[in-house]
Specification:
Layout lengths: L27 H9 L12 H14 L5 E5 L6 H17 L3 E3 L1 H8 L2 H18 L2 E5 L5 H12 L3 E5 L5 E2 L7 H4 L4
Parallel strand pairs: 1-2, 1-3, 3-4
Antiparallel strand pairs: 4-5
């Protein structure tokens, strides 16, 4: 009797081996943890509307819209006390749920008032255009503040007025229309 050498036929896997991933078998506790992490379901896998609503409420609170507000306050004159006041105004805006932008605190750090004022004011106006509101602080207005207020009015921005103690007032600063048109 003769024994033939039978060769096994070659076959191709439907998925190349390099694309196969290792599958890890999960223990009972690991399956419970995984089931709990599925949104809207409890650890047994059933829908849990109470937890779902609680998670949605927390998510909405975390995604609360914060308006970008332009802080308009005195810079020239007593620069040290005006800078401290502007810092206080920015903190107030944060406490009110807004994102404050006070470019006059930054631009004077690297720009010269005497020679680059027009460029600095142009940059201020560009930044003002990106803001949702203009918040004006103080009892009097400088020429730069007047220009910012005039541009905000022209662009129909919401303008809010505050005194130096951060109390909102219902009246605009006494600046006069001729002074608003002075620079721009």
């Amino acid at each position: 009797m003769e024994i033939k050498n039978f060769e096994t036929p070659e076959f191709e896997l439907p998925i190349p081996l390099r694309k196969l991933k290792k599958v890890k078998l999960l223990s009972f506790n690991e399956r419970k943890v995984k089931a709990m992490s599925v949104y809207g379901r409890n650890q047994e896998g059933y829908m849990d509307p109470t937890a779902t609503k609680a998670v949605e409420a927390v998510s909405k609170a975390e995604k609360k819209y914060l308006p970008l507000v332009y802080i308009c306050s005195m810079c020239s004159g007593d620069v040290v006390s005006n800078t401290e006041a502007a810092k206080r105004y920015r903190r107030y805006a944060v406490d009110q749920g807004a994102i404050p932008l006070a470019p006059h605190l930054l631009l004077h750090l690297y720009m010269k008032e005497e020679s680059e004022r027009e460029l600095a004011m142009f940059m201020d106006m560009v930044l003002l255009g990106k803001c949702d509101e203009l918040w004006v602080f103080g009892e009097e207005a400088s020429s730069g503040m007047c220009a910012e207020i005039a541009i905000a009015k022209r662009r129909k921005k919401k303008i809010r007025y505050f005194d130096s103690a951060c109390n909102e007032t219902n009246r605009a600063l006494e600046i006069g229309s001729e002074r608003l048109q002075e620079d721009f």
